[in-house]
Amino acid sequence: MNLPSGKPTRFQTETKEKNMIDNLTNDITRLCGEITALRDSRAVLRTNLAQGREDREGTVSQMLADFRNTRKDVAERTQTELRNFVGTVKDAVTELKQGVAVFQEEFLGDLTGARRAWCGHNSMHTPSRMAAKEQPKEFAPKGKKKKH
Asked: What is the pTM of this model?
């Protein structure tokens, strides 16, 4: 109820003020509770982050150790395979050299036979391949020719 002048009564004013103070007190109490809850949440979050970091450090350390061990194993395996490969290549090269030597001997025999066929049976006076290699070759000296 209002006074005839339209102004609220003293009781109405005090009640309004009391309601405002109660609301303000309730709001402040609620905000203090929220602040405390947020601080607690932040502390839990920091603890969880620190624990997560420690866990990740352990995981990363283990992963790096695994990488080192794997790299070492792969290096040893690669080195062994490379040694085996080089040994196989050396054996193949030796085999090829022996095959080429046999082929050269056969070819030399074929050339000797062809020489005999062309020159007749008495071609023994024809220098052999080795003798041909040992004979000095006569070459004109290299250099500029003099003009006369």
From this structure: 0.42
Q: What's at 114, amino acid-wise? A: A
3-state secondary structure of 122: coil
Q: What is the mean pLDDT of the chain?
A: 83
Higher per-residue confidence, 17 vs 9: 17
CA distance 70 to 78: 12
The parent domain of residue 114 ranges over 10-121
* 21 occurs within a structural domain: yes
| 136 part of a folded domain | no
Structure tokens at 95: 């085999």
pLDDT at 55: 94
Question: Would residue 35 count as lying in a domain?
Answer: yes
